[in-house]
Amino acid sequence: MMLGATNYILKIIKRINETKDDPFCRFQHGIMEETECDLYNNRPEVTIIRGMLIINHVNRADSGNYTLNIYSSQIRQTFEGDLQVIVEAPIGSVEVSIICSSSGVMRVFCSSEGDQLLYSWTLNGDPLMDGNSSIDLDEGTDGDISCSVKNHVSHAQKTIRLKPCPVCSVSVVFVVVWCLQLMVLFGLLGAFHIYMRHTSGKKKEGQKMRMRRFREGHEHTAEDS
């Protein structure tokens, strides 16, 4: 805030609705006035040291727009200013992964935890592009690729070794297609064989039925005579 402000009255207001009901906190002689502080209630990590407001263990709720008023011991305002506070989570561990597509593109992904992340890439030390969490490369690209991630509070980087995407040769593709054709052919032959056995069985059963009826009819004729 200001050097020597312990001799002044400090009032900090967090502007939420821009009304008199916005939370505030009042400090006098470097001490928080608990009866006039609904902004930092039950937060012992908020202190005043040599006129500076110090908040240890800040959290995202501390982000926002503030107004600072400083009064002299005669309750006369000597300063008023606005302050914007942005709290960001630091960068976590950086992870880099690779996916090879059938269209011949190698896509490299970069991920990390944190707020307001900015990405940048280098291949063998040469910059590639900034701002995106993924990058497309030719499938034959080889070398060391690095992803750097940063925000306002920290920075981290991960480097991995690229390997060309595996390419299927024409002979391998031919063998695979040939095997698939054989599988389809054997499947059709098997189905035809089952169909023929089923049809043949029905024919034999029909012949037996006709023979039985013929014999029964012949026996009845013999009895009548």
TrEMBL record:
Membrane-traversing stretches: 172-195
Protein name in the entry: Uncharacterized protein LOC113114405
Localization of this protein: Membrane
InterPro entries hit by this protein: CD2/SLAM_rcpt, Ig-like_dom, Ig-like_fold
Domain Ig-like, chain residue ranges per copy: 44-161
GO (cellular component) term, any one: membrane
Chief site of localization: membrane
Organism of derivation: Carassius auratus (Goldfish)
Keywords linked to the UniProt accession: Glycoprotein, Membrane, Signal, Transmembrane, Transmembrane helix
Gene3D superfamilies: Immunoglobulins (2.60.40.10)
